[in-house]
Amino acid sequence: MFTGIVEELGRLRARDGGNLVIDAPVVSADARVGDSIAVNGCCLTVTASGEGWWAADAVDETLSRTNLDQLAPGDPVNLERPVRLADRLGGHLVQGHVDAVGTILDPAPALRVGAPAGVLRYVAEKGSITVDGVSLTVVDVGADFFTAAIVPHTARVTTLGHRGPGERVNLEADVIAKYTERLLNGRPEDPTHEGGR
Questions:
Q1: What's the confidence (pLDDT) of residue 197?
Q2: For residues 48 and 63, what is the distance between their CA atoms, to the nearest angstrom?
Q3: What is the pTM of this model?
Q4: How many domains does the chain have?
Q5: Which CATH number is 158's domain given?
Q6: Domain range spanning residue 147?
Q7: DSSP string computed for 82-150
Q8: pLDDT tens digit sequence for 146-196
Q9: Looking at the domain assignment, is residue 195 inside a domain?
Q10: Contact 103, 113 (CB under 8 A)
Q11: What is the distance between the alpha carbons of residues 141 and 113, in angstroms, rounded to a whole number?
Q12: Which of 54, 112, 124, 146 is disulfide-compatible with 49, CB 3.0–4.6 A?
């Protein structure tokens, strides 16, 4: 579980298909094989690490559903280690499970992102959404987009300050909204359950 508060702006050192090697002195300092680290909001498992770097494998499913397939050596990436139970929850609950890829329509500071309907159904004014692993508060929601105001600090320390129109970003809707919808829609009756006739 993550918070959407980016700890470090790392850089892709090398890539061989789905094997990614990332330069990141902060998050690699205590990284161990098997740990989770969010890369642009996508939870990946550490497969190796050394001084100032760590590596992970992104499977075909991950590459096809995120913007990680477009990364090239030298590209910056937003990085966050999982939250610890004693940590402050500065953003919102983020799973690191990317729902879809959106497109930057207008860059920061008045960020406008084109998003598919399957994600927008969970987006609400003043609600939360994760864009490339960054927890953002939604300003407005349109038929095929949402907006968020990016403060100078966030623009400086994340990829969002460097993204331009047409670039793809990973989107994760608020998990609480998804579970709420599921609960409100109910589930098919179980005929073995008492009263389910």
A1: 37
A2: 19
A3: 0.87
A4: 2
A5: 2.40.30.20
A6: 100-183
A7: PPPTTS---S--B-S---EEEEEEE-TTEEEEE--HHHHTT--TT-EEEETTEEEEEEEE-SSEEEEEP
A8: 999 999 999 999 999 999 999 999 999 999 999 999 999 976 555 454 444
A9: no
A10: yes
A11: 10
A12: 54
